[in-house]
Amino acid sequence: MGRKKADIDAEQVEGLAKIGCTASEIAAVMDVNCSTITRRFAKELDKGREQGKMSLRRAMWKSALGGNTTMQIWLSKNALGFADKMESKNEHDVKGTDLLGLSPATKAQVLKELGGPSE
Predict the structure, then answer these.
(1) Within this chain, do residues 18 and 38 fall inside the same structural domain, yes or no?
(2) Which residues contact 8 (CB under 8 A, 6 or more apart)?
(3) Global pTM?
(4) pLDDT reported for residue 119
(5) In this predicted model, which residue has the larger pLDDT, 83 or 100?
(6) Among residues 29, 41, 43, 81, which is most buried (max CB within 10 A)?
């Protein structure tokens, strides 16, 4: 004869998963083995985690739309794919031609100030 099944509230498991608790943490609260939680309440764990992510996402959007600049920047990078990357496009060959028609002396001065090679 097997052991008596632990009486665990599925809604409580889902609620704890919703606030980000791990299966191990939930098991500790329920005073059962972690495998009991993952085996018997996989659906509740998944649903709670997804609801938690949705709640967090909602709060982040609300914060950004409310004027939180830091959140606006973070979301622009993560949700919209923006980046801080600054690309420099040098359309002139520094070694072979004058930069934007500068005289050789002026070009040498500019390159020296920029830390580039001088002629």
Answers:
(1) yes
(2) 30, 32, 36, 37, 40, 41
(3) 0.64
(4) 52
(5) 83
(6) 41
